[in-house]
Write a structure and sequence with these properties.
- By secondary structure, this protein is α/β, with parallel strands linked by helices.
- The chain is built from 14 helices and 15 strands.
- It has helices at about 5-15, 30-35, 40-50, 95-110, 125-135, 150-160, 180-185, 205-210, 235-245, 305-310, 320-330, 330-355, 385-395, 430-445; strands at about 55-60, 65, 80, 145-150, 170-175, 190-195, 200, 215-220, 250-255, 280-285, 295-300, 375-380, 395-400, 400, 415-420.
- α8 (about 205-210) packs parallel to α9.
- The radius of gyration is 25 Å and the shape is globular.
């Protein structure tokens, strides 16, 4: 083994063992050269290779530092406790795997990836997605799949394009995805809400709106809802599919967290669609990384032409599409999916235990708790959400008010905090919940006991 290879192997061993811990500054190039008895050029080369392997990173005029891995956290013990994030934890990004996939894609397709893109999406990726979706009981050929630069783009196109039923109003759950609600309001697109709780939606009211509300489509998050974290029951999913076919109303099913949670017994609405009225959307931003900007839409046959007409050109880089195709077919994605599912499940269990410990939620910490990202903490009407959030920020706890998930015109809204484990340190979740409980008591002016009526056990399903 050459001197260079020995040095490189020793540095990797020290990093893997924790001797050089995450966030630690490595010896300078000159110090390391003296330590190993080699030239400065050899150490420059070794550090460059470690940086190339994403083991270290460099800061100009400062030095080289060990990258945080999945088991290392830079969050200081007395730093902010983040229970607010909606974006995934960068520590869980599959950077090295995806870099390999980018290289494989370049080797396989070469210059083809730098020409004008097919507006429908790269054919090999659409074929791979057809197989991937079939595992989740979404059966559609590649000809019905469209690649989009994130699900938000698909939602925008669907909101603006004409639908065969001739209706113009979009029905949304309340609460729902805040950024989409703001888009609909600012664009002046007719929209109305229907209440949803952890117990589900009122199917009688939904049928009334489908029958006489002029509804173009119903936007829903069937599984692991944001911000409620809840999933529809099997009966509800079947009923929504049946009502869509009966009244000619389309359903836009945003399955953005399907791969984050346990999918047993939670087939999407699309699996029960017999009339071609369900549009299935899937994002890879939460499971891979947000910067990928890739999502997919599975469209009914009759919507392909209007959807393509609204789009007119390819807006998703072929290189990242080709890399995702390699990532899916190689099995890397499935391995990564299992890993993040376990990591987020660990955090959700910690959150459930902390909420139970501090009397804020009657949700037992069951070993089979479903993974996900969000959980709502319902609050009494006497609590001022904005003031509570400010007090918590002053105490180093970041939270998000559930009010953002409602249309501005919607009046029957629930008062809650959306708690997220997306970037939460499992070791500090209990501390964060304790501070929240203390501030809620202070705000409400009494014990937490008995101030959560109507919510007891609501999240057990």
């Amino acid at each position: 083994m050459s001197k260079y290879a020995e040095i490189l192997a020793d540095l990797e061993r020290r990093i893997a063992s924790g001797e050089y811990a995450a966030g630690r500054k490595l010896p300078s190039v000159r110090e390391a050269a003296a330590l190993y008895g080699c030239s400065v050029n050899t150490m420059v080369r070794a550090y460059a290779e470690l940086e190339k392997r994403h083991a270290v990173y460099s800061i100009p005029r400062s030095g080289h530092y060990v990258v945080d891995g999945p088991s290392g956290r830079r969050e200081a013990a007395d730093g902010p406790i983040d229970l607010s994030a909606s974006t995934p934890d960068p520590e869980l990004f599959p950077l090295q795997d995806f870099r390999h996939c980018l290289n494989q894609a370049l080797d396989a397709h070469g210059r083809e990836l730098f020409t004008c893109a097919d507006g429908r999406g790269l054919e090999p990726l659409r074929q791979a997605l057809a197989s991937h979706f079939a595992e989740d009981q979404v059966f559609a050929g590649a000809e019905r799949i469209r690649i989009v630069p994130g699900v938000n783009r698909a939602l925008e196109l669907l909101a603006r394009m004409p639908f065969p039923n001739g209706n113009g109003t979009i029905l949304v759950e309340q609460p729902s995805y805040d950024l989409y609600l703001r888009f609909l309001e600012e664009a002046g697109i007719p929209v109305r809400g229907i209440g949803r709780t952890a117990e589900g939606v009122d199917l009688d009211e939904l049928e009334r709106l489908f029958r006489s509300g002029g509804i173009k489509f119903f936007y829903t998050m069937t599984r692991h809802h944001s911000p409620l974290g809840a999933s529809y029951s099997l009966e509800e999913r079947k009923a929504i599919a049946r009502l869509a076919g009966k009244y000619g109303v389309y359903v836009v099913e945003d399955d953005y967290l399907a791969d984050m949670g346990d999918a047993r017994g939670l087939d999407p609405i699309h699996a029960y669609d017999r009339s071609g009225h369900v549009i299935y959307l899937k994002s890879f931003s939460k499971t891979v990384f947000p910067g990928l900007r890739l999502g997919a839409a599975v469209l009914p046959e009759r919507l392909l032409k209007p959807f393509d007409g609204m789009r007119r050109y390819g807006d998703t880089p072929p290189l990242t599409q080709a890399a995702l195709e390699v990532y899916l077919r190689s099995g890397m994605y499935e391995r990564h999916r299992r890993m993040i599912r376990n990591r987020y499940a660990e955090r959700m269990r910690a959150l459930a235990a902390a909420l139970k410990l501090h009397g804020a939620w009657d949700w037992p910490c069951a070993p089979d708790i479903r993974p996900g990202l969000y959980a709502p903490l319902m609050l009494p009407r006497t609590v001022n959400l904005e003031r509570l959030a400010r007090r918590l920020a002053d105490r180093g706890v970041r939270v998000v008010s559930g009010k953002a998930g409602y249309l501005k015109s919607y009046r029957d809204w629930m008062k809650f905090l959306r708690l997220s484990v997306a970037r939460a340190n499992p070791q500090r979740i209990e501390e964060g919940v304790r501070r929240i409980a203390e501030e809620v008591r202070r705000e409400a002016g009494r014990s937490l006991e008995g101030i959560f009526p109507g919510w007891k056990g609501a999240m057990r399903r």
